Amino acid sequence: MEAISVPTVQAGPSGQTHAPPKHRWWALAVIGLAQLMVVLDATIVNIALPSAQQDLGFDNNGRQWIVTAYSLAFGSLLLLGGRLADLFGRKTTFIVGLIGFAAASAIGGAANGFTMLVVARAVQGLFGALLAPAALSLLTTTFTETKERARAFGIFGAIAGSGAAVGLVLGGLLTEYLDWRWTLYVNDVIAVPALIGAIVFIGRSVPAERPKLDILGAVLVSGGLFGIVYGFANAETHDWDNWMTWGFLAGGASCWWRSSSGRPVRSTPCFPYASWPTATAPPPCRPCSSRPPGCSASSSSSPTTCSRRWATRRSRTGSPSCPWWPR
């Protein structure tokens, strides 16, 4: 296969670059594959949890942390991943995220114990936090015309919105007809064409001005997100009256308050609070906050209940958690 030359261009003040017109829809396909891989992994392992528990021999509390390890790393490092994409380039961060995510998936699929699986899931979340903001920024800079950008974001949103539900169904199929480990190996199948497409079709941008990393802001924001996500996850296993639940929630909220109002304003903050929310820049967390925190826990527990209590086939246990399932 002959490689298609993609020129390196100097970005404008905002770091914007233009992909070759005939390659931009191929670039969208690559970005869509990467986004599918990230959102798929939030739910695809849920159906495999009973099989993985039986194979690796961990208890019910450990089952929850296989799901939470991914969410913790992904949620707490997402804003930092976006800043790193600005520092080192969107394409570079995108490719590093793809390779790291695929490697962590391979290690998780080959896990021989509970600890190895949880660490692999956390590393998946780490590289997913690099991959997701880089993919979104590449989409924004690749499509510069208003109509094409709206169409591209519609396709991207459809992939992001349906990926979690597809993960539940696909996880059941893979667990029943292959093995639970394929719920992780499937990421490598997706990552290979995405990596080749990223190298071939996505243009490299060189930022005109490389921003500085706000280290204190990154620590505070990431720590705040970690505390909030961990607090909600701890409520699932230890209930709401546990001191760790409220302790981490309060600690996370205080970190966010400290990062927004308790320190001097920097020229390149990790999170620009001054622009959130506005009429032209709606709150970035609003789509995420529309899903209650308990949904992740319920999507992991309900398939397990179905498969164990009613001996439901693995390929069907994900369906009750999907939006289209009759209530």
Task: Tell me about this structure.
The protein is an all-alpha fold and 327 residues long. The protein has a domain of 191 residues: MFS general substrate transporter like domains (Growth Hormone, Chain: A, Up-down Bundle), CATH 1.20.1250.20. It contains twelve helices and two strands, in the order E-H-H-H-H-H-H-H-E-H-H-H-H-H. It has a two-stranded parallel ribbon. Helix 1 runs antiparallel to helix 7 and helix 4 packs antiparallel against helix 7. The N terminus and C terminus are likely disordered.
Strand order of the largest sheet: 1-2
Sheet/helix structural class: mainly alpha
Morphology: globular
As a percent range, the share of strand residues is under 5%
Radius of gyration: 20 Å
**Helix content range of the residues, please?**
55-70%
Total count of strands: 2
Q: Remind me, CATH topology of the domain at 20-210?
A: Growth Hormone, Chain: A
Taking the sheet with the most strands, its summary is:
2 strands, parallel
Question: Looking at the chains present, what oligomeric state does this protein adopt?
Answer: single chain
Quickly list its features.
mainly alpha; 327 residues; Growth Hormone, Chain: A; disordered N terminus; 2 strands; two-stranded parallel sheet; 68% helix
